[in-house]
Design goal:
- This protein has 213 residues and is of the alpha/beta class.
- The chain folds into 2 domains: 5-138, 3-Layer(aba) Sandwich (Rossmann fold), CATH 3.40.50.2300; 145-207, Winged helix-like DNA-binding domain superfamily/Winged helix DNA-binding domain (Arc Repressor Mutant, subunit A, Orthogonal Bundle).
- It is built from 12 helices and 6 strands.
- The protein has helices at 14-25, 39-48, 65-75, 93-98, 111-122, 130-138, 140-144, 147-150, 153-163, 168-175, 179-193, 198-207, and strands at 5-10, 30-36, 53-57, 80-84, 103-105, 127-128.
- It has a 6-stranded parallel sheet.
Amino acid sequence: MEQKIRIGISNRYRLLNQSLETRLASVSHLQVAGTAGQGRQVLELVRDKPLDVLLFDADYDDMDSLDLVREVVALNKKVALMVFLLDDCWQMVDHFRREGVKGFLSSQTGVDDLVKAIGQVHENKVYLAENLAQELFQRWGSLVTPPDKRLTKREVQVLKLIANGSNTQETAQKLHIANKTVDSHRANLLRKLALRNKVELALYAVRNGFVRA
């Protein structure tokens, strides 16, 4: 008898968890081992259940999803990870990829594609939802350009100060520029690096060697 792929499902919305559990349980070679609603519950699920694949949310109320991935990997290095991304969160693909996530799903992913994706990540292959792949392809030019070539000297200075915890006024004083100029540089950084907020800017600065953690 073919061994079933054991799956853990985690989403903030209980209705979606229940719907996915019902649909996947009807697939002969899949077995839903459990569901979870929040990040800490995901960790409990990984501790308590032998999982082959974990489908998890990109946003939890009780913990950062990237931190969650690191803790899950520490608990079970063999579990294949898949993340649900909103359509406008394509820029998070690389962050999760660096942490070992293999599957990237979107709101447009259907059940048949989900089953296909589970099989691929279980075989240690990568799955990227079609609409996310199209978005990444359209922006490929900016993604492959080295960061230091895309940023001006002043933008790098602002990035470093943001990463070190300086607010707008403090940054303006240190660089002897206006607050509005700082805001403009920060907006340019977010646009060029495809990031969403100051937290992601700080994380980017640490990961790419602009500042020390």
